[in-house]
Amino acid sequence: MKRISNLNYIRGISAIFVFLFHMYVVLEISYGGLNFIVWQSTYWMTTFFLLSGFVIHYTYREKALDSRETLLGYVKKRFLGLYPLYVLVWIVYYFWGYESDGLKADVVTFPAQVTMLFGYRHYQWRVNGGAWFMGVIFLCYLLYPLLRLYVRQLKKKEVIALAVLMWILNGAAPFVGRYYGFAVYNEICVRVFEFILGVCLGELYLNREKRTNSVLWPALSVVFFVAGLYLIRRFDLFAVSQEQCRMNWFTALSAAFILMSFAECENQTMVKLAESRPIAVLSKYSLELWIATFFSCTICKNYLWFHEPFSVSNGARMAVSAAVQIVFVVILSLYNHYIKKFLERIGILKFFLGVCAFFLVSFAVRFIFRI
After folding, report:
1. C-alpha gyration radius of the chain
2. What confidence tier does 67 reach under pLDDT thresholds 50, 70, 90?
3. Nearest CA to 303 among 94, 98, 132, 97?
4. Beta partners for 224?
5. Positive or negative CA dihedral for 23, 26, 31, 37?
6. 277/180: higher pLDDT
7. Per-residue pLDDT tens over the stretch 208-227
8. How far apart are alpha carbons 266 and 212 in whole angstroms?
9. Could you give the CA distance from residue 154 to residue 132 in angstroms, rounded to a whole number?
């Protein structure tokens, strides 16, 4: 199908702001008047899951996923798109930024971790925090074939009703979590709501008969997002300063507004700019940019400034953190390129078994030497 070029803006900008947010929190970098936008991390994660649902439905709605062969081909493609980077993050976190609750927890959660079938927590044990969202999106991809069958048979009003229901559940989740005493940012159900909402938006987009050449709606959607975010932060509506997810009702709505308005706009100037080399490259490597953030944050915080970010100026922190981020994006891009060529030669099964053997041996060493 025809590529929706304007989605390049959303992919690239979302990945950049995820990086800016982590540097804002970890290194206390100030972006001046942009702080009220950078501060909102949940919006960019919501955008990631909405966009994933939208794109996967746009790509696969009319493709055959009914036979065993086509279904396995779909799962394999989605698995290969995530697994090489996921394994790298897992290994690095396992030996460097260890986030385990002990050997027993690692052994029990191993089947879920090695297959990416987990969220941030698995039976209340912490697992691979650096790649939790990759595990959750893979679960969403596994859910999609069934979701596709259901959504395709719905009428337009029913699709809208399902989208509204997902928006309500997503907005209510933080308040339910507060009542029961748990945070929802990393909870699978919240991200599944967003993914389903994205699929519904994809269905509505595909059934629209008219597109627009006007940039009015994309501009209004951005103004709505910026103005709403400013007012929420300015007046601390719903006490979002205590938990950002309490503004899920706004983040999902504004992200949906931006996604649909940008997708439906066919203004040639806007499309050509989206297809320009800088924005296209930024979009293409947005996942690497997203994941590189976790590495660059740790490097900058733990090794460059020895836990004292204010020992250098704000501008220097910006420049150095950006340089470190670019280095890691290049490293991850090269890794992803060559590891996929390696997988073409040996096959995914051998690679998977090698990963299993690697971690099982590390578990045995830890057990023997009580590490």
Report:
1. 21
2. confident
3. 97
4. none
5. positive
6. 277
7. 877 788 899 999 999 999 99
8. 6
9. 32
Kindly report the number of other CB atoms within 10 A of residue 12's CB atom.
21
pLDDT per position as a tens digit, 313-333: 888 888 888 999 999 999 999
In the structure encoding, which two tokens stand for residue 89, read together?
Answer: 């993050």
Tokens, residue 135: 């595990």
Claim: this prediction has a pTM higher than 0.70: yes
- On whether the CB atoms of residues 243 and 101 are closer than 8 A, the answer is no
* pLDDT tens by residue, 164-211: 999 999 999 998 888 887 778 877 889 999 999 999 999 999 998 777
Measured between its terminal Cα atoms, the distance across the chain in Å is 52
Nearest to 15 by CA among 287, 297, 318: 287
Residue 105 CB: number of other CB atoms within 10 A?
Answer: 16
Q: Which residues contact 85 (CB under 8 A, 6 or more apart)?
A: 131, 134, 287, 288, 291, 332, 335, 336
Tokens 């509204």 found at: 164
Over range 37-41, report the average pLDDT: 83
Whether residue 253 has pLDDT greater than 60: yes
Amino acid at 136: V
The arithmetic mean of pLDDT across residues 59-66, rounded, is 89
d(CA 110, CA 125): 11
User: In 3D, which of 205, 154, 218 has the Cα closest to residue 13?
Assistant: 218
Q: How far apart (Å, rounded) are the C-alpha atoms in residues 143 and 140? A: 5
The whole-angstrom separation of Cα 56 and Cα 199 is 8
Nearest alpha-carbon partner for 142 in 76, 202, 47: 76
